[in-house]
Design brief:
- The complex is a heterodimer.
- Helix content of chain A is about 45%, strand content about 15%.
- By secondary structure, chain A is α/β, with parallel strands linked by helices.
- Chain A folds into 4 domains: about 20-90, no CATH class; about 95-130, no CATH class; about 135-165 and about 415-520, Aspartate Aminotransferase, domain 1; about 175-410, Aspartate Aminotransferase, domain 2, CATH 3.40.640.10.
- In chain A, the strands form 2 sheets. A 7-stranded mixed sheet of chain A has the order 4-10-9-8-7-5-6, sandwiched between helices.
- Chain A is elongated, with a radius of gyration of 31 Å.
- In chain B, helix 1 (about 10-25) runs parallel beside helix 10 (about 310-330), helix 8 (about 245-260) packs across helix 9 and helix 10 packs antiparallel against helix 11 (about 335-345).
- By secondary structure, chain B is α+β, with helices and mostly antiparallel strands.
- Helices cover about 40% and strands about 25% of the residues of chain B.
- In chain B, strands 1, 2, 8, 9, 10, 11, 20 and 21 form an 8-stranded mixed sheet that branches. In chain B, strands 5, 6, 13, 14, 15, 16, 17 and 18 form an 8-stranded mixed sheet that branches. In chain B, strands 3-7-4 form a 3-stranded antiparallel sheet.
- Chain B has 3 domains: about 1-65 and about 105-185 and about 280-355, FAD/NAD(P)-binding domain, CATH 3.50.50.60; about 85-105 and about 365-440, no CATH class; about 195-280, D-Amino Acid Oxidase, Chain A, domain 2, CATH 3.30.9.100.
- Chain B has 17 helices and 22 strands.
- Classes of the chains: A alpha/beta, B alpha+beta.
Chain lengths: ~525, ~450
């Protein structure tokens, strides 16, 4: 029952003409210079509108100069017109650009209709608008090897050349003579094709040697190879987890892990990024009602869009306390950082001590492919059988396997230390220059330098400008990042010279400033 | 006499700023061109964080003594009803993040007639020691060496006065005189917005707030003061001309279309006042501060009424700016530093994401298939429904809810299917029908 106010409302004319009509009449009177009529009509305008439009001299309209000589009458007319005319009629925008900049990919995730082919058209229309306005950051192609400088073509056929932070080759192995020689030798010895599943006859002796090398690098001796990193992450989870089991996963863990979790069970809990305390609570919660089934806790080592990593020591301990199993994705850190290239595991003295590690070769090891490693020979055989992406895919090609094996050798050699030192010199040069220019680099120094932008429109526009200004950078937005939190993900290579990094930072800053001016935006990039 | 601060505009943003500064012992002059109690265009709506601010300032009871409150709202999109509340832990997190303390959190909603709310705020400001002058029209800002140092204006007695202060706070709404006098530019303009018409009705009881959307039209019914309900209808500004040709007829037509039940209730009820309307709703930002001046409330960020967040944001600004200015007035921080702190909060990534969220919603495009499916997926998932409502009301960041892994999980956890809702029957035909202007 609503409370009654102490006062009763003052009676206002029930059938009073509405303010829009009154304002039209005031404007008509203004056109004939009849300021008396303007004032008379203004007296009928509601208190609501008069108090809202404090810039209109409602009580003083009769004092306006009817000749309009002082410009006051014209100003009142303009102000009143603005209030009652749709604003978009005054500010026309390019409809293509508006459409391209406003939407995000998730708007198209659940299309309507029973025709699976026809219902993709809507999304395609948006992609075309993004392409026409040169804000589509995907589907660029290389014209030559992706070195520290690269030549590329966007999907409109437009070419550019620029300092390359758009390729994943942290130790610059793609141009390394020993790597190329290893590829050539494998090509000579085995040919381009592995010709079978790794469960059947797809592996070579090189595959076995690679498994041993990875076992030594991670301290986890039982290693299984997968044709891609994505297949390794997805396969590890669906291989192990069943419908009654639970997955507790960092909100920002890689897509292959998120999708693997969803494919394996409906019991998925996403925890706040890096928050080990939250994991402890979720585990206690699950264990309070389920003592029978398994729990897999899933995290990245180095997170690929935030450039940070969890406290794995505590996380592993919390898992053991609750009979949960930990899976760590070391795709971005293994080989590129940590003592002897051992990544985040080595940095936290955890070699050989986490339950399961998985990784991808595509960031540092110069090839497609991935692996799962643990101390358990049983786990290895189980995942080979039940992680479908191992059994039912063709094995890594001999060339790929040889390249990764050679990469693993260099990573563990003194040359690896030297390459990582060069890589980090470039990383520091880039971060320092960006930060010095007032921009926000997220996370910790690592081969991934996330430059925070925030608003998607700003990021898409800056991305368009950068393309023409000689910096190749990947703009990440939803669904890779949450909405409103887009960024440039700059991936550094050992081959980047510090002055190249600084030059790129200068260009990036200019592009962001120009985009902000172009969009006339006052928003900054501070998170909260 | 030299004031510490002159606040221009004595309503939600201004009176609260004056109140908070005066309570901290600063000499404050609060001026407004109108007299109180009086009404102003407003959604009247207070989200739970808005109510929490009132509670933190010790004013909540005064408001709830005369205003109905409720703790659940219904958001109905094309017949898909989501009912929920803003979870207290999200509210506490909001206050901790933004203001560094989470005291006084309450979870209720209310719609307060502005003649009631603004009067309470102005009286509280006066009681706290601010000097309040109503019927005072600021005519000019006094500047010295490019710095605003005071105001010149006409008082209720018709005479002109000149007053000086260390800072002038523009709290005078989207059509801010302070902003106009400073000739401030507008940023992040979003011209597409809604037109909105409303009045006050008796004779039926909705019980709690209901917000409806169907096609390109929206409607809301909320209990407010004096035993009345505010009934609001809105639509895209492109249709405003045609709507205006017959305001009472189209108002009823819109309500019937949005929700036949609501249309019926209104038809059987009694309208207590004239129908009010506005089209002055486009979104934009202004510079936040400059030498000797700072803006709060709608004066600094104007946006469409469609999420009914204006009063709550005005209160938020009042706490932020008064905390920043107090540090400076008390000699603890430099002014630049204080203003940078305020700006950091108000021009952050989260603020940008919410501005975009509101301005995009205000374009009133029919909900897309995927959006409606998301609402279906939320049904029966109370925790996530509550989080969606908290996101809609700017308690939780847009980026936390609209995150791929979250949306995929929502999908997987769906308990209902679209088969239960008529809007999905022939979606393409329905969407085409929604594009037709029903008032033409």
């Amino acid at each position: 029952m609503p409370h009654q106010g102490a006062d009763t409302v003052t009676t206002t004319e029930l059938h009073q003409r509405d303010d829009g009509e009154l304002i039209e009449e005031i404007l008509r009177a203004a056109r004939s210079g009849d300021v008396e009529a303007m004032a008379r009509t203004a007296a009928e305008v509601s208190e609501m509108t008069r108090n809202w439009a404090g810039h209109i001299p409602w009580d003083d309209l009769a004092d306006l100069d009817p000749s309009g000589a002082d410009g006051e009458l014209a100003r009142v007319v303009a102000d009143l017109t603005e209030m009652w005319e749709p604003a978009h009629l005054r500010n026309p925008v390019d409809p293509d650009e508006e459409y391209a900049l406003d939407k995000n990919a998730y708007d198209f995730y659940r299309p309507a209709g029973r025709d699976l082919l026809a219902r993709t058209e809507d999304f395609y229309g948006w992609v075309e608008a993004r392409r026409r306005t040169e804000t589509w950051q995907y589907s660029r192609v290389l014209e030559a090897a992706p070195d520290s400088v690269a030549q590329i073509t966007n999907d409109l056929g437009k070419r550019t050349r620029g300092i390359n932070f758009n390729s994943q080759d942290y130790l610059s192995f793609n141009t390394h003579p020993a790597i190329r020689e290893a590829a050539a030798r494998a090509m000579r010895d085995y040919g381009p094709h592995s010709a079978g599943s790794p469960m059947v006859l797809g592996n070579t002796r090189i595959s076995d040697e690679l498994e041993v090398a990875l076992g030594e690098l991670t301290g986890l001796e039982h290693v299984t190879l997968f044709p891609t990193g994505w297949a390794a992450g997805f396969g590890a989870i669906v291989g192990l987890v069943r419908q009654s089991d639970h997955v507790v996963i960092d909100r920002l863990a890689h897509s292959c892990l998120q999708q693997g979790a969803r494919a394996a069970t409906r019991n998925v809990v996403r925890y706040e990024h890096l928050n080990v305390e939250a994991v402890r609570q979720h585990l206690a919660d699950i264990r309070s009602h389920d003592s029978r089934n398994g729990i897999l806790v899933v995290t990245d080592g180095l997170f690929s869009v935030d450039a940070d990593w969890p406290d794995l020591v505590t996380l592993q301990r919390v898992c053991r306390e609750h009979d949960a199993t930990l899976l760590v994705d070391v795709a971005h850190d293994l080989g590129s950082m940590g003592p002897g290239g051992t990544g985040v595991l080595g940095m936290q003295d955890l070699l050989g001590q986490v339950d399961i590690a998985m990784g991808a070769f595509s960031k540092t090891f110069c090839s497609n492919g991935g692996f799962v490693a643990s101390n358990s020979p049983a786990l290895k055989q189980y995942i080979k059988m039940f992680g479908g992406s191992h059994f039912f895919s063709n094995a890594l090609s001999p060339v790929q396997t040889a390249v990764v094996r050679e990469a693993a050798r260099i990573i563990r050699s003194p040359e690896g230390d030297e390459l990582r030192a060069r890589l980090f010199t470039a990383i520091h040069a880039l971060r320092d220059e960006l930060t010095g220019r007032g921009l926000t680099c997220m996370g910790e120094p690592s081969p991934i330098v996330p430059l925070l932008i925030g608003n998607e429109k700003l990021a898409r526009t800056a991305n368009r400008l950068l393309f023409d200004r000689g910096v190749l950078a990947f703009m990440v937005e939803f669904p890779v990042t949450p909405t409103g939190s887009s960024r440039f993900r700059l991936q550094v290579q050992a081959g980047h010279r510090p002055e190249e990094a600084r030059e790129a930072a200068r260009i990036i800053e200019g592009a962001i400033a120009d985009s902000r001016a172009y969009l006339s935006s006052a928003f900054g990039s501070a998170p909260r | 006499m030299m004031y510490d601060a002159i606040v221009v505009g004595g309503r939600c943003a201004g009176a609260s700023t004056a109140l908070l500064l005066a309570r901290q012992g600063h000499r404050v002059l609060l001026v407004d061109r109108s007299s109180f109690p009086s009404d102003v265009i407003s959604t009247h709506f207070l989200w739970p964080h808005g109510m929490s601010y009132l509670n933190r300032w010790g004013l909540l009871e005064q408001v709830t003594d005369v205003t109905p409150t409720y703790t659940t709202i219904d958001i109905v999109n094309d017949g898909i009803t989501l009912s929920g509340s803003v979870p207290p832990e999200l509210l506490r997190e909001y206050f901790r993040d933004l203001h560094g303390d989470d005291s006084g959190v309450v979870g209720s909603y209310a719609s307060v007639r502005r003649r009631v709310l603004d009067q309470i705020l102005v009286e509280a400001a006066a009681k706290a020691g601010a000097e309040v002058r109503t019927g005072f029209t600021v005519r000019e800002l006094i500047t010295e060496d490019g710095r605003v140092v005071g105001v010149r204006g006409r008082a209720a007695d018709g005479r002109t006065y000149e007053e000086r202060a260390r800072v002038v706070i523009g709290a005078d709404g989207r059509n801010s005189f302070v902003a106009r006098a400073l000739d401030l530019p507008k940023f992040d303009e979003r011209p597409r917005c809604t037109f909105a018409y409303w009045s006050y009705w008796s004779g039926f009881e909705p019980g709690r707030g209901q917000i409806h959307r169907r096609g390109r039209l929206g409607g809301a019914v909320v209990p407010t003061n004096f035993g009345q309900n505010m009934v609001l209808a809105w639509g895209p500004s492109e249709w405003s001309r045609e709507f205006r040709a017959d305001v009472p007829g189209n108002y009823q037509r819109a309500l019937d279309f949005i929700s036949p039940e609501l249309g019926e209730a209104v038809r059987g009820g009694t309208r207590e006042e004239r129908i009010y309307g506005t089209l002055d709703q486009s979104g934009f930002l202004r510079p936040l501060h400059g030498p000797g001046w700072v803006l709060v409330g709608d004066a600094q960020t104007a946006k469409d009424q469609c999420t009914a967040i204006g009063i709550t944001h005005a209160f938020r600004d009042a706490e932020l700016v008064s905390a920043a200015l107090h540090g400076w007035l008390a000699g603890e921080t430099a002014l630049d530093e204080a203003m940078a702190a305020y700006e950091g909060r108000r021009r952050s990534q989260n603020a940008a994401a919410y501005h975009d969220y509101v301005c995009t919603l205000a374009e009133m495009r029919p909900y897309r298939h995927d959006e409606l499916q998301l609402f279906v997926a939320l049904r029966g998932n109370q925790e996530e429904t509550d989080r969606f409502i908290a996101t809609h009301g700017d308690v939780a960041p847009v980026s936390e809810f609209f995150q791929a892994s979250n949306l995929f999980l929502l999908n997987d956890a769906a308990k209902e299917s679209s088969a239960d809702y008529a809007v999905f029957d022939d979606f393409a035909a329905t969407s085409r029908m929604y594009q037709q202007n029903p008032f033409a």
